Amino acid sequence: MPVRRLAGFGLLLVSVSLQASIEAWPEYLRTDPAGEAVAADRSAAEPGARSVALRAARNGYVSFQVVARPGRRGPYSLSFEWSGKAALEATVFREWFHRGARQAGDYPDALVPVKLPYHSEFPEPDNKIADQKVQPFWVDVWVPKPAAPGVYRGVVTLRSGGGKEELPVAITVLAATVPDEDVIRMDHNSYGSSWLASGYPGLVKRTAGDFFDSVAFYRLIHAYHRIFYEHRGIFHQLGYGHAGKVGPEFAPEVEGTGRARHVASWTRFDRHYGPLLDGSAFAGTRRGPSPIPFMYLPINPEWPASFVNWGEPGYEAEFVNVVSEMERHFREKGWTHTSYEMFFNHKKRYKGFPWDGDEVRFKKDDTFFREYRRLLDKAMPAGSPVRILYRADVSWDTERQAREMAGVINMWVCGAEPLAWLPETARLLKSRNEVVWIYGGTPTVYKPSEEISMMALRPWMLGVGGFVHWLATSPGRDPWFQFSGGATGLVYPGERFGIEEPIPGIRLKLQRNVLQDLALAQELSARWSLETVQAGIVERYNHSRPADWWMNRPPMADRPVLELNNADFGPETMKIARRMAADVAAGSWRPAHDYILQLASEVAQ
Amino acid sequence: MKRRDAKHFRYVLFLWLAAGAAAQSPRGMDELKKSLDEVARTGSVMVDGDVCQRITTERAKEYMVKKDPRDRWIDGDNFDVNAEPYIQTKKTLMRLARLVDFPCDVNLWMPLDNIAGQVQVVIRNVNEMSQFWRFGQLHQPMPPEMKQVLASGERLAVIRRPGMVSVLAPVRNSLGDTVGLLEVVAQMTPDAHENVK
Predict the structure, then answer these.
(1) Chain A contacts in chain B segment 79-98 (CB below 8 A)
(2) What is the per-residue pLDDT for A582?
(3) Residues 212-251 of A with CB under 8 A from B
(4) In 3D, which of A342, A345, A225 has the Cα closest to residue A273?
(5) CB B196 to CB A194 under 8 A?
(6) Which of A351, A569, A573 to mutate to test the interface with B (most CBs of B within 10 A)?
(7) How far, in Å, CA of A298 to CA of A253, rounded?
(8) In chain A, which residue's Cα lies nearest the Cα of B109?
(9) Top CATH class, A19-177
(10) DSSP A64-115
């Protein structure tokens, strides 16, 4: 008898587990293939909801996750339909579980766009997850600017051998509108374009050896710009190597030497940059066409002037001739809405040139920087509408360089740590109306999901204008089954899924949602003051105060720069310098987001 | 005066050798090897070993061999050169590469004074071609081919990577010591996008 009762209980369990079910998870809580919160987000774990109820400002996105449990192996489908006439647009992505190279378990990040209704097999055959119990989907709801405030309802439906399950969705659209302009330039950096060939081998094959000159190649570059633009970011591609080799698509073709050096052809350059500089590459995006705000120039010690003539009149002639032609070309084309960056990326250690262009440590290298300022000034006509910024990426010697390179450098990309204990330096640079950003790495997927919010919030709290992910397009050789965590990639090649474009990841989505909140918060500060709004946000975010975002100056900051090493910027120094109250966890941004929307609602009333 | 005479002699010799070495794009590996060998022969005469010995600063040499478990970049972050000898030598290497009319790099390699069996590339050039350089390494174990050239003072053609040829040639100082070597390198099919990073 007890045996029979036990068997009955077992049958009940089997029947429950074979039944389809569907849950709503917040954007910041990621599931593993078994349907449990991933370890990094577990502190924020909460039971899945049976419905979605979110608020959103217009001209922005609101996101949530649908965790589908088809119950049985075999065919399943997912659909999403709005009730009545749809003013909002939903885009659904299947979340890919990355098999890690380390023992961290399978984490979702890459988002594969799906067409609705979505039909597939469970478990998803291509993801090859053993014993998969759930398939999560990311849902982006776009709220257009003209959408009328009110509640919009829809339903997500899961159908499988385990039955049919529905998840009601209600989005309350507020009267508030997210500004078009960002308060932080979120930059995603990359180097050259050979990585595109590695990421899209099928496309290379189809272009029959002509990949780098093909329409598909330029379309792909523009697609990378578009994906970052749509996620409120920008994209940089550095077009030259450590010894000055310039990729053909990054520079006009030049010919001649000495005073005879001139631009021979703009063909490739214009194919690459024309649609980016006039904004047409962004036609059809939700944010609309707009010229890229920043771009690297190909200028380096070997281009446009050959280093063989360094220090001689010929070097100056070659530099001035070609840079003057560039200025004229941009002016005549009307490409005057972009800030062009003259930036030196080389380092002595790579043995191409005798001075450090990047992360200067030796004061004597300033001489080279000053000479390029002289050359640039000579090449640029007075009153030109073309804006060429002279950019330097600094960390070791930020304080001195900011002081002594006034009038030379006017775009600073600073290591966050030194700048955070140099409030006077930050003020100095801003008082000179110079562009100031900070740079850093990208949190891996194995970190709490919302650690990425720090990349947007920190520059805003420091009062600087941007953040650079030093490398954002390189998720690794095999991000699908041998994933190293994505510290250098926020997007993935879509070719595996038949998409000849990059596809986004969860971290990129979370970052975008923070950026749009900050754009809104900045606008709200007109009513409550920036200090009040910032204080309200960071108190809710990690129980900190605005002053906590600045660091105490550590003793090492007063030692000669050549006595410092990387350990001086390590945890021990940070312990001394840091005042920040608490670390960031999954869900940290949610109270800040709610606060911003609350303020926005009050303004609208 | 003596110095100026020597400089003038070198310049004339350079032009003479340049005229002889100027070549059409190579049609095969043998022709490529031959063109590079001519550049290497010229380079051995033109590159001044005394100047090369002054390129890396003494401080950088000390740091190149330092290890710090708390700072894996201690060597690179302290790498430094004396600009004047560097520029003088680099310009010569660049001119040597122009002796042929196809993409060619002339790299300067030197053994480390303070660690036996280690060699560093001191100057690389625009195409960043090399069959020996390991990206990001300040110095590395000396390849046997380089050891051979340093010992014999004879040029040596090396094919390690398919389609790429390096000719190694000795660089001597005023005492007649072989203090470094040139890697004159090119590939059969130049890649316009390689090393743009």
Answers:
(1) 79-83, 86-87, 90-91, 94-95, 98
(2) 59
(3) 212, 238-248, 250
(4) A225
(5) yes
(6) A351
(7) 11
(8) A351
(9) mainly beta
(10) EEEEEE--SSEEEEEEEEESSS--SEEEEEEEEEEPBSSTT--EEEEEEEEP
Nearest to A511 by CA among A292, A227, A232, A176: A232
> Is B197 in contact with A355 (Cβ distance < 8 A)?
no
**Is A248's CB within 8 Å of B195's CB?**
no
Interface confidence, given as ipTM, is 0.91
Q: Which has more pLDDT, A100 or A598?
A: A598
Band (pLDDT 50/70/90 cuts) for residue A396 is very high
Interface membership of B193 toward A (CB under 8 Å) = yes
> Class for domain A185-505, per CATH?
alpha beta
CA A248 to chain centre: 26
Q: If residue A142 lies in a helix (H) or strand (E), which one and from where to where? A: strand A135-143
Answer whether A247 sits within 8 Å of B76, measured CB to CB.
no
Q: Find chain A residues with C-beta within 8 A of B196's C-beta.
A: 191-194, 239-241, 245-247, 250
What CATH code is assigned to B2-187? 3.30.450
Tell me what the mean pLDDT of segment A179-200 comes to.
Answer: 97
Query: What value does the mean pLDDT of chain B take?
Result: 89
CA distance A299 to chain B (A): 13
Q: Nearest-CA distance from B68 to chain A in Å?
A: 9
A245, B124: Cβ pair inside 8 Å? no
Give Cβ neighbours of residue A41 (< 8 Å, ≥ 6 apart): A28, A29, A30, A448, A449, A585, A586, A587
Assess whether pLDDT exceeds 70 at residue A14.
Answer: no
- Determine whether the interchain pair B193/A192 forms a contact, defined as Cβ–Cβ distance below 8 Å: yes
- How many percent of chain A have pLDDT more than 70? 96
Instruction: A42-45: list long-range contacts, CB under 8 Å, 24+ apart.
Output: A43/A448, A43/A585, A43/A586, A43/A587, A44/A448, A44/A585, A44/A586, A44/A587
Alpha carbon distance B24, B41 (integer Å):
18
Reported as a single tens digit per residue, the pLDDT across A306-347 is 999 999 999 999 999 999 999 999 999 999 999 999 999 999
pLDDT digits (tens, 9 = 90+) for A286-302: 999 999 999 999 999 99
Question: Residue B192: what residue type?
Answer: A
Residue contact A307–B77, C-beta within 8 A: no
Does residue A211 sit at the B interface (CB-CB below 8 Å)? Answer: no
Which of A404, A507, A418 lies closest to A455 in space, CA to CA?
A507
Q: Which residue of B has its CA nearest to A345?
A: B197
Average pLDDT over residues A479-487: 96
Residue A578 binned pLDDT confidence (cut-offs 50, 70, 90): confident
For chain A, residues classed under CATH 3.20.20 are: 185-505
Q: Which residues on chain A are in Cβ contact (under 8 Å) with B68?
A: 565, 567
d(CA B126, CA A242): 8
The helix/strand/coil state of A313 is helix
* A515: Cβ contacts below 8 Å, ≥ 6 apart: A182, A183, A184, A186, A231, A232, A233, A456
Delimit the domains of chain B by residue range: 2-187
Of chain A, the percentage scoring pLDDT greater than 90 comes to: 91
Question: What is the location of CATH 2.60.40.10 in chain A?
Answer: 19-177
pLDDT at B8: 52
Q: How many CB pairs under 8 A join A and B?
A: 108
Please indicate if any CB of chain A lies within 8 Å of the CB of B102: no
The identity of residue A484, as a single letter, is S
Cβ neighbours of B124 in A, within 8 Å: 242-243, 350-352
Instruction: Say which amino acid occupies A266.
Output: W
Q: What is the mean pLDDT of residues A497-506?
A: 98
Contact A323, B56 (CB under 8 A): no
Q: Is A598's pLDDT higher than 90?
A: yes
A294 min Cα distance to partner chain B (Å): 19
